[in-house]
């Protein structure tokens, strides 16, 4: 397994050099906002980005931002053209050494929170926060407004202005799409792209819904073990995989993350991992915590042990961190707390590996 770190390209205030200096960090999970959903990723433009990363001594084998156009999720007649574009992007990424594409099939909203910087009383740091009651008192438009206002001037993946400009129109269209219909459209998409993935050796890794329940009455189909199982069975292929995001799935205490990892890990269905912790504050109410198990409600030792026991050979990155040491940056994506998270995961992994050898 390889440890990696998300990097946003040149708009990221964190230089690649700093990422290279994190112990055992082999590369980045790339996030580029140069291409809109549905657009073909230009091979040359992408090659430049890859070169920049490689020149810093880092690998780039995972890309996290090839967004699925809303027309594909809605099953509109125009979807075929967007699926063709997606296939071209897959080829262009593969030519540049990419092995895994992380994506999601969440309608309209990729991820959402009701506060991007909730202060943590104990230590004065802050982190992303969610309270379903607050969300229920908000229109989707109001949520978008709040999120943009508090983003600190940074672009946020999933909150691209061009995507949200047509919010009302898109929400209206989803009124005729239920879970079954969405799943049908998902299958159509996978049937379209998976043969290309198999041909060029790319794994598609779907990111679970964040948070792990439906919002604003829009269907969501990727937030339980059973739902993820349905997805990997839509098209039976080694290229149809998961990105297990512990914090997204783990926002619902009913999701037992180590058991999810063991179940899909044994089937070789996990291509990559986002690892972070969450602290439950009540029913559908949580904030993000440091990675340390005792700071939140997820057991990081059991999570890493499940990966180790199932011979996980994919990519891991620390997911969102808190904002600490007065760092200013993209919500969840500062340098300090994520780097602490990565070194903590290194420690767990070394201990688990060595204990296992001692016991043999
Ligand atoms: Mn994630």
TrEMBL record:
Broad EC category: lyase
GO function term, MF aspect, one: mannonate dehydratase activity
Catalytic reactions on record: D-mannonate = 2-dehydro-3-deoxy-D-gluconate + H2O
Domain of life: Bacteria
Pathway(s) of this molecule: Carbohydrate metabolism; pentose and glucuronate interconversion
Cofactor(s) this protein cannot do without: Fe(2+); Mn(2+)
Keywords, sorted A to Z: Iron, Lyase, Manganese
EC number: 4.2.1.8
Pfam family, one: UxuA
Keyword Lyase attached: yes
Keyword Signal: no
SUPFAM superfamilies from the UniProt entry: Xylose isomerase-like
Listed InterPro entries: Man_deHydtase, Xyl_isomerase-like_sf
Protein family: Belongs to the mannonate dehydratase family.
UniProt xrefs under HAMAP family: UxuA
Function noted in UniProt: Catalyzes the dehydration of D-mannonate.
Full protein name: Mannonate dehydratase
Species for this entry: Peptoniphilus stercorisuis
Higher taxonomy: Bacteria, Bacillati, Bacillota, Tissierellia, Tissierellales
Gene name per UniProt: uxuA
């Amino acid at each position: 397994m390889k440890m990696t770190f998300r990097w946003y390209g040149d708009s990221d205030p964190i230089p690649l050099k700093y990422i290279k200096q994190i112990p055992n960090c082999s590369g980045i999970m790339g996030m580029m906002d140069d291409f809109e959903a549905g657009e073909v990723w230009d091979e040359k433009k992408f090659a430049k980005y890859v070169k920049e990363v490689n020149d810093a001594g880092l690998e780039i084998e995972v890309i996290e931002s090839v967004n699925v156009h809303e027309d594909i999720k809605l099953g509109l007649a125009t979807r075929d053209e967007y699926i063709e574009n997606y296939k071209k992007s897959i080829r262009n990424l593969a030519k540049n050494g990419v092995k895994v594409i992380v994506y999601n099939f969440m309608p309209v909203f990729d991820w959402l929170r009701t506060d991007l910087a909730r202060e943590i009383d104990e230590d004065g740091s802050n982190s992303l926060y969610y309270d379903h009651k607050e969300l229920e008192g908000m229109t989707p438009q109001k949520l978008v407004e709040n999120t943009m206002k508090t983003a600190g001037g940074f672009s946020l993946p999933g909150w691209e202005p061009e995507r949200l400009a047509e919010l009302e129109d898109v929400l209206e269209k989803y009124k005729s799409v239920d879970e079954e219909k969405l799943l049908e459209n998902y299958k159509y998409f996978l049937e379209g792209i998976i043969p290309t993935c198999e041909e060029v050796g790319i794994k598609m890794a779907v990111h679970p819904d964040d948070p792990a329940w439906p919002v604003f009455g829009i269907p969501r189909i990727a937030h339980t073990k059973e739902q993820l199982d349905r997805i990997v069975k839509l098209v039976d292929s080694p290229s149809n995989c998961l990105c297990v995001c512990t914090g997204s799935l783990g926002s619902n205490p009913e999701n037992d993350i180590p058991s999810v990892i063991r179940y899909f890990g044994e089937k070789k269905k996990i291509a990559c991992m986002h690892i972070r912790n969450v602290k439950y504050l009540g029913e559908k109410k949580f904030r993000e915590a440091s990675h340390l198990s005792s700071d939140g409600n997820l057991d990081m030792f059991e999570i890493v042990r499940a990966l180790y026991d199932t011979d996980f050979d994919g990519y891991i990155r620390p997911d969102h961190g808190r904002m600490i040491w007065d760092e200013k940056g993209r919500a969840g994506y500062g340098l300090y707390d994520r780097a602490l998270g990565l070194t903590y995961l290194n420690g767990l992994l070394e201990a688990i590996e060595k204990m296992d050898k001692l016991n043999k």
